[in-house]
Amino acid sequence: MTEDLDQRLRAALRRAADFDPDVAAARERLEGLRRARRSRRIALTTTTVVALATLGLVIRMQGGDTDSVGLVAGQEPTSTMAASSTVPTTSTSSAEAGSDAAPAQPPCGAPTAAGMERVISAHGVSAVVPAGWDWYFFEGGPVDDGGRLASHLHVGSFELRKTEGGSLGEGEWQCMGDDDVFVALIFFGPDSAGTPLFAHSLRQELDPDMFSPRASPGGLPPGQSAIQAFFTENGRAFMLYVVLGSHEDRHTLVPRVEAFLAGITIAPGP
Amino acid sequence: MEALWSGDKVAQPVAGDDRNTHVAHLFNQNYSGLCRLAYLIVGDRTQAEELVMDAFVRTLSSWATVRDPERADAYLRRVVVNLCRSRLRRRHREGRQRNLAGPQPDTSADPGDDVGLWQAVLALPAAQRCIVVLYYYEDRSIAEVATTMGCADGTVKSQLAKARSTLARRFNEEGDG
After folding, report:
1. Which residue has the higher pLDDT, B6 or A172?
2. In what order do the strands lie in the sheet with A125-129?
3. Which residues contact B153 (CB under 8 A, 6 or more apart)?
């Protein structure tokens, strides 16, 4: 009976799959996608600092206080920023001046704007944010400076709530879907650069099986997993923290993260 | 477990032409087979072709980190299966939210015939469905199925046993009826 069922199953599946996909059309489509990627890469490598600003590189400053923190977000832009400049420490529009509160937090699951791929830059770190992804830069201090919340760049494939809940993005993970990824880049001070803990490079590969559901001190939402890595790039030290919306799908989500990380460039420190 | 990405080894970048040649070869060798595999899992031909294309695009974009291009077909298969599982999960979730569902198995089909048997496979939970298709359709070993699914051999065996039991029950019920 079991053997009979096995044979019937094999026959049934082979019969059901007896069709020929349109390989020629698919090959043409893949080639088109490949050409589009190559054009985009060439365009990016020839983009100048000035062009970055004209491409729509935008920032929004949060808070008028010049001493400690600033939040630069990827949505609702109000001013442009040259790629080589540091983040300004004063508000640039009257609408933002005096607004000390964090931006209104959209509920989880709010649709992410489709938009276009964007090139962002802050404090010498540039990244290509894919279409539909969200980001913000929080300007604090280096981790080892003590006292202040660390400067960090948050990027996610979903709409970020832009909370100031912590440099690892603890306030964001609840909003992630199974297909989402979240990347936090936390800035360390010059004393950390090149030390054994930061000996690795950003270009190191991520092993999907190194992700762990227990990689957060405060715990991750069920089903998620994360990885923490320290690295030095161009004499500057960073911690990379990546959260996957679904640990089960880590083998498909990690390549998305790696594709994003491949587009990050870090200018030498001062 | 097979790992094409590793935390302790850095892949040598592959020159653009090599990458294109490899991917073109991979495409010619695997596209049709992967479409059939995805179709048997998701039960919809358009979605299957879309998922396989997505898998190729992802492979193309992360090719520089593929350590062993000769085993890229195994990686591709894993991506396709994972994408299928994600699609099934999303379909299930959206179906629950909207009280709708995607292509549904025809439970009135006669499990004693080929179409009915495949419909019975489509009614299995996503993981069991993937395992059944990889094992019976692709004739993969337990170890290969485990690698593709990213789980232990024992998990594959137990899930396969459950799937067989479910299918046998339907098969027998029909026989008795």
Report:
1. A172
2. A118-122, A125-129, A265-266
3. B142, B143, B146
Closest CA to A233 of A197, A269, A183: A269
Question: Which structure tokens are listed for B169?
Answer: 């029950």
Task: Indicate whether A245 pLDDT > 50.
Answer: yes
Tell me which residues of chain B have a pLDDT lower than 50: 1-15, 100-101, 106, 177
Q: Minimal Cα–Cα distance from A96 to chain B, Å? A: 38
Strands A181-187 and A225-233: unpaired
User: Minimal Cα–Cα distance from A206 to chain B, Å?
Assistant: 6
A5 contacts in chain B (CB < 8 Å): 164, 167-168, 171
Chain A touched by B97 (CB under 8 Å)? no
Closest CA to B125 of B171, B69, B165: B165
Percentage, residues of chain A above pLDDT 90: 8
| Most A-contacting residue of B20, B60, B78, B136 (CB-CB within 10 A), to test interface | B136
Contact A204, B9 (CB under 8 A): no
Residue of A nearest to B76 (CA): A252
Number of Cβ within 10 Å of residue A198's Cβ equals 19
- Interacting residues of A81 by C-beta distance below 8 A, sequence separation 6+: A53, A57, A58, A59, A72, A87, A88, A121, A122
Window 144-163 of B, Cβ < 8 Å to A: 150
Backbone angles phi, psi at B6, to 5 degrees: -140, 145
Task: Test B118 with A2 for CB contact under 8 angstroms.
Answer: no
Burial grade of A81 (CB within 10 A; 0-12, 13-18, 19 or more): buried
Alpha helices in B16-152 (DSSP H): 16-42, 45-61, 72-98, 114-122, 126-132, 142-149
Q: 3-state class of B4 per DSSP?
A: coil
What number is the average pLDDT over the span A166-176? 73
Q: Is the CB of A30 less than 8 angstroms away from the CB of B53? A: yes
CA proximity to B83, closest of A182, A210, A223, A178: A178
